[in-house]
Design a protein that fits this description.
CATH class of one domain: Mainly Alpha
Strand content: 15-25%
CATH architecture of one domain: Orthogonal Bundle
CATH topology of one domain: Arc Repressor Mutant, subunit A
Organism: Cellulomonas gelida
GO molecular function: DNA binding; DNA-binding transcription factor activity
Radius of gyration: 24 Å
Number of helices: 14
Pfam families: HTH_1, LysR_substrate
Structural class: alpha/beta
Largest sheet: 7 strands, mixed
Shape: elongated
Number of strands: 11
Order of helices and strands: HHHHEEHHEHEHEEHHEHEHEHEEH
Distance between the termini: 64 Å
CATH superfamily of one domain: Winged helix-like DNA-binding domain superfamily/Winged helix DNA-binding domain
InterPro entries: ArgP, LTTR, LysR_HTH_N, LysR_subst-bd, WH-like_DNA-bd_sf, WH_DNA-bd_sf
Protein name: HTH-type transcriptional regulator LysG
Length: 320
């Protein structure tokens, strides 16, 4: 019985030791995954690539699993995403604790650069090109942001795997370990150049017309056009699709008559007013509710960022 108790104690001690991850090793893992290569991670951490490699390898030995797929760019394995998320959360907590203790002066440039905390944020392209930048005006000097442009329907995936700290997303359901709050709705308008409208939709946006008329989408994950078309047609349609991953080129190609598409209401107002674009239907609107999700940590940095995002969204988006 004493032998069994001793084994249990030893096993518990081993588990406890296994969970005491080294901070330098966690930082190295996060840097490799953020930067994509060991060399870039080394430059960010001001160490040699060999040192970064040794730290990541030591962390993998402790975890007993491969954490990084050595490719270009490097990417995390499933266990790697768990530890990368832990690294980001610890860095954020340490940063806020140091700030509350007054550990460094905001006027010390070298210290500020060394202690800056990085916030990876996923934002959909339309928000990024319209209301979201206002949320970052006046951001504290010791906070740097890494904005990832992603479709609003996919940003929740980046929260799940720990790639980003926060996201503007269309998912109202909180990702595990995250908090969520409503921001408002972005209104999109279905528009086309007059000649496109006359050629394909002279009899209205019928299911037959929507099936044949070319459509412009931002990328392969942009489902707005298909959702709107399905609403009008009463069924799913499969029109020919042009993919144009640029906000300015998207509108330019609509004006040039490449096809029809959905644009934010603010971007459509002027061309619709001057007749260079026309609305596709009598009720051409599609409101997309947006939500702000972030790690479920109560820190001053995240609270401040959330307050900024909510203010910017309230000023620009429609009530849900």
């Amino acid at each position: 019985m004493n032998v069994d108790r001793a084994r249990n104690v030893d096993r518990a001690m081993n588990v406890d030791r296994a969970m005491n991850f080294d901070r330098a090793q966690l930082r190295a893992l996060a840097a490799v995954l953020d930067e994509g290569t060991f060399e870039a991670a080394a430059a960010r951490l001001h160490v040699t690539p060999s040192a970064v490699s040794q730290r990541v390898r030591a962390l993998e030995q402790q975890a007993g699993r491969v954490l990084v797929v050595r490719a270009r760019p490097c990417r995390a394995t499933e266990p790697g995403t768990v530890l990368a998320r832990l690294a980001g959360q610890l860095a954020l907590l340490e940063h806020d604790a140091a700030a509350q203790l007054g550990g460094r002066s905001a006027g010390e440039d070298g210290a500020r650069a060394a202690s800056a905390t990085r916030l990876a944020i996923a934002v959909n392209a339309d928000s990024l090109s319209s209301w979201f930048p206002a949320a970052l005006v006046g951001l504290p000097d010791d906070v740097v942001v890494d904005l990832r442009r992603e479709d609003q329907d996919r940003t929740a995936e980046l929260l799940r795997d720990g790639t980003v700290t926060a996201a503007v997303t269309a998912d109202e359901h909180a990702v595990q370990g995250c908090r969520v709050r409503s921001l408002g709705a972005m209104r999109y308008v279905a528009v086309a150049a007059p000649d496109v409208h006359e050629r394909w939709f002279a009899d209205g946006p019928t299911a037959h017309a929507l099936e044949r008329a070319p459509v412009i989408a931002f990328n392969r994950t942009d489902a707005l056009q298909h959702r709107f078309a399905a609403r009008l047609a009463g069924r799913q349609v499969a029109p020919p699709v042009h993919h144009v991953p640029s906000n300015s080129a998207f509108v330019e190609l609509l004006l040039a008559g490449l096809g029809w598409g959905m644009v934010p209401q603010g971007a459509a107002e002027r061309p619709v007013a001057d007749g260079s674009l026309v609305e596709l239907a009598r009720e051409p609107y599609l409101d997309v509710p947006l939500y702000w999700q972030h790690w479920a940590l109560r820190t001053a940095t995240l609270d401040d960022l959330t307050a900024r995002v909510v203010r910017a969204a309230t000023a620009a988006l429609r009530p849900v």
